[in-house]
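Sample pair:
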Amino acid sequence: MPSDPAPAAVRRVVSPLDHRIEAVTGHDVDTLWTRRDRGLLDEPHALLVDRHRELAQAETGVTFYRTLLHRLSSGEFPVDAALFIRIDRTVDQLEEAADAREAAARRVLAALEPIEDAHRTAPGGGEHPLSAADQAALLAIAGGAKLHEHLLTQRRSVVTASGTRITYAHLQQLEAAGLVCRDTSHPMHAGQPVTVTDAGRAALSAARRPPTAQAPQPPARPGAWPSTSPRPQRR
């Protein structure tokens, strides 16, 4: 009898913790995942996203084994000893997947709560909140950027990999704020690489949407998130 297939690849899923993550960061989960991949998050937020990915993978495992159990009991297979063995094994696998998901959720909470505490104690969101123009410039620079100086006109500007141009004056403002830095070991006419600093990534992580009414917690899907009460032992 062939072994059961492995769970599918990780995908973004809705968990009961997503609304708390989005409320404290000001960004939806997809945006946070993208910024993590681009290296735009500071260490606490990067850890939170990594833990959330683990939770998403664990949720995928639960979904897989629950779906398999439904298929086994749907009447597709003959009712014989082999079917009972597969059902029994699948129930064990589903139980293990649910335990792994609960452990992953606890790790998400361990990474989330310090960020929530820091947000509650922050003085009004910071003395110098990141402007929309600065945020757009930092996001463009994060994808790759160089400062060029024209040999004839001596005009300086930053050209990003996305094609966005940032004025030299704006670059100086970002540098003065410690949000970006450039590699001066390269000649300016050949292009000096410009990168986002740790402070710049932290500022991007702290950049929030305008305050809105707190979104209600999404209703739990039937059977999607098991109770933490002890499960009865099967014979």
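The CA atoms of residues 179 and 199 lie 6 Å apart.
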